[in-house]
Amino acid sequence: MPPKAAKGNRRASKEVRSKAKVDDFGGLDPGMMMSLMKKIPKNPATGRVDLLDIMKYMEENPSEMSELMGEVDKLGIGKSDTDLSTFNYEALAPTIVHESAWVIQLESMGFVDRNGKPVDPDQASGSTGVRPTFMLYCYDEKGSYRLTRECVGLPEANTILDVLQRAIAEPLLPLKPCLPWFLLLSIKLQQHVSSLKPFLDSLPSPFHWRLETREEAEGLHNGVDALNQAGARNSMSLATKAKTTGNDAFHKQDRISALRAYSEALKHLIDVLCQKPDSELEGKAKKLQAVCYANRAAAYLIPGKGIDMNRALKDGQDSEKADPSYNKAYIRQATSSRMLGKMDDAQDAIVRALRRKDLENDVNLVDCLIDLMTGGKGMSDNEETFKNWLLDVLINDRKSSTRLRDLGGEWRRRCDVQFAKFKR
Question: pTM above 0.70?
Fold first, then answer.
C-alpha cells in the first residue's frame, strides 16, 4: 500500500485514494470501468481500493482482465510514441502547481519462479530459480498513480529514470503530462541518486526534489507496518471463515464447494504472510495453512467424479512444509500415495512423521502405519502370524527393516504390547 505523500519539505497528511472521475477513463468504456470498479472489494485494512487490490482482483479474474486488455489494445493505450530523450520537459514549467507533490516509491511484491508464476513466500527460500519482485511507482498528493512498473529483481537506474520520465511525459490515463512542485525519492533508491541527479536537476524551477530521510522512512515503515498488521489480522479472519465454509461443504461431500472455500482460505493466508505479521500471527497463519492444505487434500480424495490423488498428494506435501508438526499432513500424503499404488512412499511419509519428537507418540500415525503394513488387517492376535510378520518387517525385508530401524515412541510401545500378549 502506498505511503502518505510528501508536501514541500513536510510529510503530507492526506492518505492515498483514487480520484478518477466517473466519466473519465482515458477513452475506455465508462460502463465497463464503473462495473469493474464496483466489483473490486475495498482493502479491509484501509477501507479503500488500492493499486494492489486492483492487481489482485484482475489476476483472479482473467476473463475481465482479457476484456479490459481488449479495450486497451483497441484504443492503442500503452503503445508509446513519445521519445523521452528529446521530450521538452522545460515546456511543462507552466503546469507546476504550488505545493503539488509526487513520490517515487519501491515496494516488495513477493516472489516468482522462472516462469513468472507467484511463489508462496514461505517456500521461496528453499526453491531454485525463485526471484523477488518489486513494484516501482509514482503517485501524487491526491493519491493518483502516475505510473507503475513491476520489476523482477531490484530495478536498475535506467528503469527508475524511465519510470520517472514517463510519469512526467506520458502518465497513466486520465492524467496529463505535467511537473510537480516537489518530488520525494524513496531512500530505497539511494544508490541510484548519482545517476538520476543530472535529469532531476535539469527540470525547470520551481521544481525541486530530495531523497527521503531515514526518519521519514522509519515513520513510513511504522505506519505501513501498522496497516499491514491490521490487514494481516483481517485476512486471518477471512481465512478462518473460508475454512469453516469448506468444512461444512466437506461434511456434505460437496467437493467443488469445499475446494473453492479451502482455496479461498489459502489465498487469504498468503495475504497474511505477505504482510509481514508479528511472530505470533505468523505462527498461527502457518498452522492454519497446513490445516487448509490437508483439508483440501481430503476434498480431492472424496470418492466420485473429480477425485484427484496427485493434487491431494501435492497438498499433503505443502501442508507438511507449512507446519511439519501437523500429523494430518503426513496422513494425507500416505492416503494419496496408497491410492496411487505407491506403498513405499505411503509408509515413508508416516515413518518420517514418527521420527519427529513431537509426533513419535501420535496414535493416529501409528494406526495408519500398521494399516499400511498389514493391508488393513491390523496386528494379528495369532502368535505365529504376528511373530512371522514382525520378523519380516524388522529383519527379513531389507527396505522395511531400513525404514523402521530404531523407530521408537508409540510404534515401539504398540509392538511391545502386542508381543507381551503371548508371554502370559
Answer: no
